[in-house]
Amino acid sequence: MRIKPLADRVVIKRLEAEEKTKSGIVLTGSAKERPQEAEVVAVGPGAIVDGKRIEMEVKVSDKVLFSKYAGTDVKLDGEEYVILKQDDILAIVE
Amino acid sequence: MRIKPLADRVVIKRLEAEEKTKSGIVLTGSAKERPQEAEVVAVGPGAIVDGKRIEMEVKVSDKVLFSKYAGTDVKLDGEEYVILKQDDILAIVE
Amino acid sequence: MRIKPLADRVVIKRLEAEEKTKSGIVLTGSAKERPQEAEVVAVGPGAIVDGKRIEMEVKVSDKVLFSKYAGTDVKLDGEEYVILKQDDILAIVE
Amino acid sequence: MRIKPLADRVVIKRLEAEEKTKSGIVLTGSAKERPQEAEVVAVGPGAIVDGKRIEMEVKVSDKVLFSKYAGTDVKLDGEEYVILKQDDILAIVE
Amino acid sequence: MRIKPLADRVVIKRLEAEEKTKSGIVLTGSAKERPQEAEVVAVGPGAIVDGKRIEMEVKVSDKVLFSKYAGTDVKLDGEEYVILKQDDILAIVE
Amino acid sequence: MRIKPLADRVVIKRLEAEEKTKSGIVLTGSAKERPQEAEVVAVGPGAIVDGKRIEMEVKVSDKVLFSKYAGTDVKLDGEEYVILKQDDILAIVE
Amino acid sequence: MRIKPLADRVVIKRLEAEEKTKSGIVLTGSAKERPQEAEVVAVGPGAIVDGKRIEMEVKVSDKVLFSKYAGTDVKLDGEEYVILKQDDILAIVE
């Protein structure tokens, strides 16, 4: 079973604290406001603006930083995911 | 009798809890905020932007996740439906 | 005497409870929020966007569902009507 | 002396209660919210959108329904008028 | 010395009560909300929309009605002026 | 060292009270709301709208009126400047 | 490891107080509102508007002034950065 996000939405999976430590990223600020690291698991086809589909900038398996409270949490086959708009993704971490 | 949604609206039918269990999706968060699973039963012709009709991304019989409080509830021939804008649909579940 | 709505406005006449029963539609939710069924009696020429007139999706004698508190009530020759924007019409019922 | 409204503005003159009775229109709702009947006395040249002037839909001597609190009241040569945007006119009454 | 308003701004000079009486205009409503009569003394080059400059509709020496609290008051060489956007001008009085 | 404002931003330097007296401009209203006179010291390249850069209307050394609380104060090499968007400039004074 | 900001986002590194003194910039106002000086360390590909990507105006190693509370703080490999939209950058300092 798969989740296919619509338009410019993206499905991501939060990376655990251990992974975060390995990648060397420590997010500052209070827990409520700090962005989180995640891996992209599904990417929508892109929004349509003025009749043209806008190509998405992220792709599956990208590591990304996103605003913690952006998007909607869903659990699928025992795993938790977040569905959010690509614009709520701050950056790709390589 | 049929409901034909206008523009970019979609008519969906909520999937019952049993079906949700079968599909393996468990929606997290409080009952108030969690998205719901539904089946598309009617799709509008698409919104018109800059004089062009935008093709819809969902089609009849798609299983979708949508924001629980999006749209308007109606009951037709004894069945309950929700009429909502396609943009309130988060993803298609396959 | 006739009412000619401007731009993308539509004039509709509420359908009585008996007619609603016949059509098989029962609208759920509290009385305050539930949509209502009505018949279209006049349709504006369509809004003009980017210099082009957008064709209307509803036509006279369509049965429609609309948000109860959308639009403005007027009484003409003893009959009550509602003038509202087409975007406040949720769907056509056939 | 004349008032020439700018862009998509219209100058209208409220029709008195007697005229309203003759035309057969009775406006429902509380006095505060009900629309009013008026006659168009001057029409702006139309707004300019994307470099093109949008033709006005109302013309001088049209009878119109408008939202009571839309626009601005002015008195000219002893007569009271309202200057409002065409979009605040709900419909033409014929 | 001159004030050259930018874009779609206009510099106007309020007309005194005596002049208002001569022109036959009496503005109704409370003093706080009533529009005022003024003479245009400088006109901006027009706003640029989609790369094209929109021609202004008012010209120097036009008598205009404007919303009393629109714009900004300035005093230049002993005279008081108002700088406002053309859209805050309701109509030209001829 | 120089400040290069981005897009449609402008760097201005407030003119002192004495200079204001010389130019003959006295700004009315309370100190909090009155616009101020300034000299343009740097001009951005212009905003990009629909893929085209919009040419700026002010140039270095123009005397301008601007809304007192628009923009951001910075001090550079001992001098105080304001960085603001061109749209917050009301007019050029010649 | 690198942070690649999306669209029109920029990653910047705050400049310390000593560097600020060397550059001669002293930012006025209360600490809460004053803009800050920073160095650009990564630049997004630019936003897409009407199907065209808008070229970014800042580049890596530019010294910039930005609104203190704009953007999101992140710490990467022990260094603190801010991810913000280019529009929250006021000016380039040369």
TrEMBL record, chains A, B, C, D, E, F, G:
Gene Ontology MF term list: ATP binding; metal ion binding; protein folding chaperone; protein-folding chaperone binding; unfolded protein binding
Intracellular or extracellular location(s): Cytoplasm
Superkingdom of this protein's organism: Bacteria
InterPro entries with a match to the protein in the record: Chaperonin_GroES, Chaperonin_GroES_sf, Chaprnonin_Cpn10_CS, GroES-like_sf
Any one cellular-component term (Gene Ontology): cytoplasm
Main location: cytoplasm
Keyword terms: Chaperone, Cytoplasm
Function: Together with the chaperonin GroEL, plays an essential role in assisting protein folding. The GroEL-GroES system forms a nano-cage that allows encapsulation of the non-native substrate proteins and provides a physical environment optimized to promote and accelerate protein folding. GroES binds to the apical surface of the GroEL ring, thereby capping the opening of the GroEL channel.
Quaternary structure and interacting proteins, as annotated: Heptamer of 7 subunits arranged in a ring. Interacts with the chaperonin GroEL.
Family indicated by similarity: Belongs to the GroES chaperonin family.
Record protein name field: Co-chaperonin GroES
Organism: Clostridium fallax
